[in-house]
Amino acid sequence: MRAPPQRRDTCMTFKTPRLMIAALRGGAGKTLVSLGLAAAWRRRLGLSVVPFKKGPDYIDAGWLALAASHPCYNLDPFLMNPEDILGSFVRRSHGADVALIEGNRGLYDGVDADGTCSSAELSKLLKAPVVLVLDATKMTRTAAALVLGCRMLDREVSIAGVILNRVAGARHERVLRQSVEKVNGLPVVGVLPKERENLFPERHMGLVPPQEHGRLTEAVERLAEKMEARVDVEGLYDMARRAERLGWPASGVCGPARRPPDGPVRIGILRDGAFQFYYPENLEALEEWGAELVFIDSMSHSRLPQVDALYIGGGFPETHLAQIAGNRPFLESVREAVEAGLPVYAECGGLMFLSRGIRSGDRLHPMVGVLPFEVEMGQKPQGHGYSVLETVRETPFFTEGMLLRGHEFHYSRVVGVTEPLEFAFRVKKGFGVLEGWDGVCYKNVLASYTHLHACGQKEWAEGVARAAVRHRNRKVPAGRAVLRAPEASVVKAL
Q: What is the distance of C-alpha 359 from the center of its chain?
């Protein structure tokens, strides 16, 4: 892990080359361009590339990490304040040859009509030049108008070039290139043709996770070759090098503000083909609070190892139901540990794992069984977007009265509730588990559909680490009070 720059009270200057890849909409091809560029920069120019993903996405970040051969970090203006974004960006890209930021959705798409929290706003904060990826399907000069509109909407956004994607042929390319460059005075730095073979299949609203792709190396290498042949990768690096120097407040470094708790603790991380959604910043933050991370495979480990706390992230457990349900000794060992008071923090897929079972089609696959409900998979998202939660009671990880910002995206919903649920969070924005509540509690378990990011919610890592210390020392307070959900919620969920 790279050590953070020294903290000083003055504002420091940062000059690492950086570039943002953006688009006019989601699905225009910016992820594949970002992957190919990261791999091409590393392979052809020998650059050390630190990738970043704008927004809360896990899957694109996983692919970017693979292409760059370096962890990919998230920058999210909704989850983090500007100082945290600057601090995390500078800390993690300091010393690299180039930082590559992939935007999300359209360049100006944010959480409101003013484009708040958009990729454009992030590019201005980071003073990063922007390259627009334009899906040119069935258009010619209109492409020039679209680029012009992006340039005119906010002159402070530094749009440096255009990559044309899904171009039909030589004539189509010639008209597009001439139109865009003549109208906008911007270079077309790459032209990518329509592809017959899709090496990057999609599921739900994005790419299939790298862990489920059977041809990882081939896919990334072929994409890098395509970029080298059809995109000016050297010119794009020159654009990145021309980024303005960035003044940043040294106090904004994302990390613990105090020393870790006394003595080391072991925190288990369920990470395998089913559970894979972890922000690298979250894992780094736990280490900074004094934790030794113990990675565990839910499908191959026969028992839960000795740990002081357990963190179960999200993922797609529904794609591995038979393997997870078939590993009964491991499920039983988790149940025993929970009953013995082990602190467990679970997000989305982790909540599903702790339920009585996951129902897919007409079959119920038994899970750990410490939470008194089942989870049913749906065909459409049951919760999708940013969330804001208010902690209404103390938990092993959070105090009462906190406001948490996170993100949720799940196709599952809670059904078959057999007893009143105890909740820690009132949902102020988002969907949650049941009727405006999230954060199901049982003993020292807190299971939520919401994902939190450690850079925006610094209390999270400290809370998990301190819960682990208490458990290690066998000083876990008994009988913590948490909010009991209204009986009507239970009746309607049966």
A: 26
d(CA 34, CA 230): 14
Give the β-pairing of 383-391 and 403-410.
Answer: antiparallel
C-alpha angle 10-252-92 in degrees, rounded to nearest 5: 110
User: Of 85, 88, 19, 4, nearest to 49 (Cα)?
Assistant: 19
Q: Beta strand pairing status for 383-391 and 188-193?
A: unpaired
Query: To the nearest whole percent, how much of the chain has pLDDT over 90?
Result: 76
Task: Pinpoint the alpha helices (H) of 371-458.
Answer: none
Determine which one of 72, 150, 254, 348 is catalytic. Answer: 348
User: Do 54 and 28 share a structural domain?
Assistant: yes
* CB 305, CB 294: distance < 8 Å: yes
**How many other C-beta atoms can be found within 10 angstroms of the C-beta atom of residue 82?**
15
Residue 212, amino acid? E
The residue from 225, 252, 279 where one domain ends is 252
Average pLDDT rounded to a whole number, residues 312-321: 92
Would you say residue 330 lies in a domain? yes
Ordered alpha helix ranges (H), 72-169: 82-93, 119-126, 142-153
Q: Which domain holds residue 200?
A: 11-252
> Is 117 considered catalytic here?
no
Question: For residue 219, how many C-alpha atoms fall within 13 Å in the half-sphere facing its CB?
Answer: 21
Residue 206's pLDDT band, with cuts at 50, 70 and 90, is low
Cα–Cα distance between 206 and 8 in angstroms, integer? 41
How many domains are contained in the chain? 2
Question: Is residue 192 left, alpha or beta, with left meaning phi > 0 and alpha meaning psi from -120 to 50?
Answer: beta
- Are the C-beta atoms of 345 and 335 separated by less than 8 Å? no
Cβ atoms within 10 Å, residue 58? 21
